[in-house]
Design brief:
Layout lengths: L6 E3 L2 E5 L13 H24 L5 E8 L2 E8 L14 E5 L2 H14 L20 E5 L5 E5 L6 H5 L18 H11 L14 H14 L3 H10 L13 H5 L5 E4 L2 E5 L24 E4 H12 L13 H8 L14 E3 L2 E5 L5 E5 L4 E6 L2 E3 L4 H10 L6
Helix pairs in contact: 1-10, 2-5, 2-9, 4-5
Length: about 400
């Protein structure tokens, strides 16, 4: 795409690669920041287009939001084999970006007085009182002993609980209740608080607690608390074949090499039309449009408020979500990670988004690629959007 398309799109401007407006100097003035966002959208088109021209990526969607105004850049194609362009209804698996929704769900329960971050998990799931740590002896034998530290919700959401990435029998689980039971049977690999270890299990356990304290299935609670008030259209744990047919092509990418077809890679199985989710996987099971995920991050950037002013999360909850909980171990927050004034998350097929509540700004980049991680095009995009904030 070499031409410039300028069109109004509900929340802001939509751009394809082309002419770039002159950038204004940084300022805290809202209107000027919006102009700067539009200028940056053009800059991002210039940054990403060469990667498409060299066939290092098939395409990408970049969205920048300043005080609710969204500037969108479409680069390349959603499906180069079918010559299908990106559109507002292009569908993505956001994978581990789902974790941030769990952190927000838990904080909404804190706001309602239903739980506290430092509550023991066993307060809600009694079997966790007996959770054990698996240890390997010098002779190679494995024995189990009681955990020396009481496991809390804060530890789960911050990945210092001591779980492995999955439980022993996750593939057989059909609910978050099953995952919680299997987490106890699987046990911990170390005591809580010893070190950061990224895990889907601890997020799923926290989501199970949300179900218990609210009396609602986790997906229904997200729908009631976030999706409906924010007027998202297609955020779901249950993608239909039609929705999956709108997913982007998955490219297998490697540094400075032409991309290949990555649709048969392991992670990419999640976006094939026949795929059936195992359960409502809070740690990585959400699908949706880029614009819908943007609405969630705009709420985070707007100090917890929807565009109409409805408060969804308290200011105190936003502060918790935006700060590293155990900075001596990692920059992880509560289902999110902190990068200076920004906080956000990425996913297995390398979608990512970051919010800055101090400036009411969001930066979002959606691709569906597998292979190498943290490629130059992503680094260049971050330099142009959240530069100087610890990324």
């Amino acid at each position: 795409m070499k031409h410039l398309l300028i069109a109004l799109w509900t929340a802001g401007a939509v751009w394809t690669a082309g002419a770039v407006p002159k950038a204004d100097a940084p300022t805290t003035d809202g209107d000027a920041l919006a102009r700067l966002s539009a200028a940056k959208a053009g800059t991002i088109a210039q940054i990403l287009q060469p990667y498409v021209d060299r066939r290092e990526i098939a395409g990408a969607v970049s969205m920048l939001s300043v005080s609710g105004r969204v500037d969108t850049v479409y680069i390349g194609l959603a499906d180069p084999e079918k010559n299908r362009p990106f559109a507002p209804d292009t569908f993505f698996w956001i994978a581990s970006m789902s974790k941030g929704f769990c952190g927000a769900a838990v904080m909404s329960c804190v706001d309602k007085g239903l739980l506290k971050l430092d509550d023991p998990v066993s307060k809600y799931i009694p079997s966790f009182a007996g959770i054990e740590v698996k240890e390997k002896a010098a002779d190679g034998s494995v024995h189990r002993r009681p955990a020396r530290v009481v496991l809390t919700l804060r530890m789960c959401l911050s990945h210092v609980a001591g779980f492995t990435f999955t439980t022993d029998h996750m593939d057989a689980c059909r609910s978050l209740a099953d995952i919680a039971d299997d987490a106890v049977r699987t046990g911990l690999v170390r005591d809580p608080l010893v070190q950061h270890q990224y895990s889907n299990v601890d997020i799923d356990v926290a989501a199970r607690v949300v179900e218990i304290v609210t009396g609602m299935p986790y997906d229904k609670y997200l729908e009631q608390t976030f999706f409906k008030p924010l007027k998202t259209e297609e955020l779901t744990f249950h993608p239909t074949p039609e929705q999956l047919s709108r997913c982007t092509y998955v490219a297998r990418v490697a540094k400075s090499k032409p991309y290949e077809d990555g649709r048969n890679d392991g992670w990419a199985q999640r976006i094939k039309p026949h795929y059936q989710p195992r359960f409502v996987e809070a740690g990585g099971g959400l699908y949706g449009r880029a614009g819908d995920v943007m609405k969630f991050y705009q709420m985070l950037a707007n100090d917890g408020c929807a565009p109409d002013g409805t408060r969804i999360l308290s200011h105190e909850s936003i502060l918790e979500l935006a700060r590293a909980q155990y900075p001596d171990k990692d920059r992880y927050s509560l289902g999110l990670r902190q990068y200076g004034d920004w906080f956000g998350h990425d996913g297995a097929l390398q979608t990512e988004a970051y919010a800055n509540w101090k400036q009411n700004r969001v930066a979002l980049l959606f691709v569906q690629v597998t292979g190498e991680w943290d490629l130059p095009f992503k680094q260049d995009w971050r330099n142009a959007t959240i530069r100087g904030n610890g990324k």
